[in-house]
Amino acid sequence: MKRNYYIVTFKDGKTVFVSCFNEEEAKILAQAVMIRKGLTMEVKSVAKTSNISDMTDVDFIA
């Protein structure tokens, strides 16, 4: 299976770049990052991206 890239945006405006198989996994992995940082885990949106260089524009990488 091919991994995809996702940018998960949270209600507090923080973003997480995730590489995984589907949108649901992206959401879970990004929430784990936010929990470890002690921040909100309420997801605002999940966007699929094909550009790996988008990881430079986010707050965290999973």
Describe this protein's structure.
With 62 residues, the protein is α+β, with helices and mostly antiparallel strands. The protein has one helix and four strands; from the N terminus they run E-E-H-E-E. The protein has one helix at 23-37, and strands at residues 4-10, 15-20, 43-49, 60-61. Strands 3-1-2-4 form a four-stranded mixed beta sheet, with helices on one face. It is globular. The relative contact order is 0.34. The mean pLDDT is 94.
SSE map:
Blueprint: E1 4-10, E2 15-20, H1 23-37, E3 43-49, E4 60-61
Parallel strand pairs: 2-4
Antiparallel strand pairs: 1-2, 1-3
Number of helices: 1
Mean pLDDT score, rounded? 94
Number of strands: 4
Mass-distribution shape? globular
Spans where pLDDT lies below 50 across 5 or more residues? none
Radius of gyration: 10 Å
N-to-C order of helices and strands: EEHEE
DSSP strand (E) fraction?
Answer: 35-45%
Going by helix content, strand content and strand pairing, the class is alpha+beta
Intertermini distance:
19 Å
Biggest sheet: strand arrangement? 3-1-2-4
Question: Which bin fits the share of residues in helices?
Answer: 10-25%
Main β sheet profile: 4 strands, mixed
